[in-house]
Design goal:
The chain contains five helices and seven strands, in the order ααβαββαββαββ. The protein is an alpha+beta fold. The chain has a single domain (4-248), classed as Histidine kinase-like ATPase, C-terminal domain (Heat Shock Protein 90, 2-Layer Sandwich). It is elongated and about 115 Å long.
Length: 249
């Protein structure tokens, strides 16, 4: 026979059971909705990342034809001047450059790899300009394995030739400086010719704009910048972006 206390407990359980069931169902419903929301947000983030990657790769491809066109132009000028030995040497250098380029399809490379492109390009230009061209590359060994967008330095160097050295007679001096400043990589390309920014061709502006966009995509929500400064002794174009070692990326 049930005692009054046991009977009261039984009645209480019977009364509370539906409420507990309802609260449980409500909790499961809210939890399920939350899971669905998180999955939707995850899909949206993944899609956005894919779109940014596609856009980033598209920007990379925009730079490459411009680079190869300028290089072929340099080689063509050697052919027109009938400088056969230099022509053969420049073609061999271009072959090495192309081989290096198509060994990787990465959307980012290291500073050391980027400088390989630059050295090949400068070797070709040295053949073309001979003693008129003098250049110097100063690199902090700490940044050799730092992540960088492809063709950043290359584009800045190309601009120096296209908008300075090819338009003005006389000696052509170029200096590339790459250092680590605190937690950032600082790259500066200086050339001895003055560039009037107001007369700078539209395509050059697009080249710098391309660099800005790709830096923003590779380092979202981080401090990045590209600036062009004229002075009495020449023009300096600099780029700043976060220092990230390739092994940490």
């Amino acid at each position: 026979m049930l005692t009054i206390e046991a009977f009261s407990m039984y009645i209480m359980i019977c009364a509370l059971a539906p409420l507990l069931g309802a609260f449980t169902l409500l909790f499961l419903f809210i939890f399920e909705k939350r899971i669905d929301l998180l999955e939707k947000q995850t899909r949206e983030i993944a899609l956005e990342k894919e779109l940014q990657t596609a856009y980033y790769n598209q920007l990379n491809q925009e730079i490459q034809p411009h680079f190869f066109f300028n290089t072929l132009n340099s080689i063509l000028s050697l052919a027109r001047l009938d400088r056969k030995k230099e022509l053969i040497r420049s073609i061999e250098t271009l072959s090495k450059l192309l081989k290096f380029k198509y060994q990787t399809n990465n959307s980012f490379i290291t500073v050391e790899e980027e400088l390989s492109y630059v050295n090949y390009y400068l070797e070709i230009q040295k053949i073309r300009f001979r003693d008129r061209l003098q250049y110097e590359i100063s690199t902090d060994s700490k940044v050799n394995q730092a992540v960088i967008i492809p063709f950043l330095i290359q584009t800045l160097v190309e601009n120096a030739f296209k908008h300075s050295f090819e338009k003005y007679i006389g000696d052509a001096f170029l200096k590339i400086t790459i250092v680590k400043k605190y937690k950032e990589v600082y790259i500066a390309v200086w050339n001895s010719a003055f560039i009037d920014q107001e007369k700078l061709p539209h395509e050059s502006g697009l080249g710098l704009e391309n660099i800005v966009k790709r830096l923003e995509l590779l380092f979202p929500n981080e401090n990045t910048s590209v600036t062009l400064v004229d002075s009495e002794d020449g023009t300096t174009v600099s780029a700043i972006f976060p220092f990230v070692n390739k092994s940490e990326f």
